Every structure is written in structure tokens, then in C-alpha cells.
Hints:
Organism: Mastacembelus armatus (zig-zag eel)
Order of helices and strands: HHHEEHEHEEEEE
Oligomer: single chain
GO molecular function: signaling receptor activity
Pfam family, one: Lectin_C
GO cellular component, one term: cell surface
Distance between the termini: 164 Å
Largest sheet: 8 strands, mixed
Keywords: Coiled coil, Disulfide bond, Membrane, Transmembrane, Transmembrane helix
Radius of gyration: 70 Å
CATH superfamily of the domain at 154-270: Mannose-Binding Protein A, subunit A
CATH architecture of the domain at 154-270: Roll
Amino acid sequence: MPSNINPKDKVGYNSRVEEDxxxxxxxxxxxxxxxxxxxxxxxxxxxxGGPHSQNHxxxxxxxxxxxxxxxxxxxxxxxxxxxxLSIHYVSVKLENEQLKNRNNLSSxxxxxxxxxxxxxxxxxxxxxxxxxLQEEVKKLKDEIEGKWCPEGxxxxxxxxxxxxxxxxxxxxSRVDCFNRGANLVTINSKEEQEFVTKLNMKGQxxxxxxxxxxxxxxxxxWVDISPLSETFWATGHGNSTDWYYGSCCDQQGKWTxxxxxxxxxxxxxxxxxxx
Length: 275
């Protein structure tokens, strides 16, 4: 088909020859043919790489650009959502870990309190047992001391005797016996008199005998207020006309009376049990 064909000239030419109704049909037909020719030329130029081969209708680019923008927005929203969820997940996980640690600490504290309470109860029980044991030891000690004389004392019968090596006045000697849990010796039998004489060995020692004023007279008494069942006075002694203190023993193993002075002394204390 020649390139100089003008569809409009052809339409104008035919419109003058034909009638109105018939021309209108041809006009439509000619326009259809013209459109086909235009489409043919456009396709032909595209295949040959003509100037219009790279041009795309702008109507086709706008939907793609909008879709790209929407896709970008969706991706951004997804990233924001993922980041938010990640932060929330980490926060919840840390909170759970802290809660778990807090619960573990609370459990450990409660367990420590229970252990401390049990330990305190054990300590209290041990203290009570120790107190009871000390009481039993004391009783046993008292029982042993009641059966046996302390070191430095001599046993005779159911009593323990102590002979001093120092010299003091009668009252001071008695105080020393008190400090030892005893008193000056009292002699109530011949056998005890012989034992005291041997214990004294030589010289004279204070014994628990003195005069007590009763009205205008004086009476001899033992310091434990026990009666004088037997007496072993030396000749010329045993008068009760003034303040006197008894001592034992002279060379014959007899008692003598003295107003005072420094002498050794003999203490006596009873033991609770004797076999």
C-alpha cells in the first residue's frame, strides 16, 4: 500500500458521489480500514526498530509505580511490626527471667530462713542439754567430793581434816576454815582425839572450842554447838571464868586453854556419804 494515501481525501471524494445513507456506511468502513492501516504501520515500524519502538504508553507505568509504592509501604510496615514484636518478645523474656530469678531468690531466702530456724532450735536444744549436763556434772562432782576429801585434806571416818602450816589468831583461823567450806575441828570421841593428835604432830593448834558468856558465867562450847560428850583437858585447864579458846595438843596430847595468840589450826568438814 502506498504511503501517500490520505484516508480523509478518500472519504471526501466518496461523500460527494454517493448518497447520504450509503456514504455513511462507507465512511465507517473507510475509517475502520484507516485504523487497520495505522495499526499495521505502527506494528511494522516497531519490528524494524523505528523511533517509536521504545515508547510505552504512560497509562501502563502508573499502575506499576503505585503497586511499587504500596509494596514498599507494606514492607516498611512489616519491618516495623517485626521490630516491635522482637522488642516486645525480648522485653517479655527479660521480665520472665527477672520474675524467675526473683522467685528463685525468694525461695532461697525462705529456705535460708527455715534452715536458720532449725539451726537456732538445734542450738537451743544443745544449750538445754549442756545446761542439764552441767547440772549432772555438778551433782556428780558434789557426790564425789562428798565421798572423797579434796587434795591436801585427810579423811577420818565421815569427815575430812585440814592442818594449816601458817599461824593465826583463833578468830582468823576460824575464818580461814569458813573460806574452805569447813569449821574448826570438833572432837567427839577418843578415836578422833587420837587422830587429831597424830595429825597435829607437834606444837599446838587451834580447835573449835571456846567459852560463851551466859550471864555472869562462862561455858565451854564447840563452834557447831554440839555438846562436850568427852573432854581431854590437861591438868589445870578447862576453867570457864573468862574468855578462853581451846587448843590441842600438849606433849601428852591434851587440850589447853589460851586467851589468844598465833597458832596453827585444824579444819574439819563432814562428807555426805560414808561407807
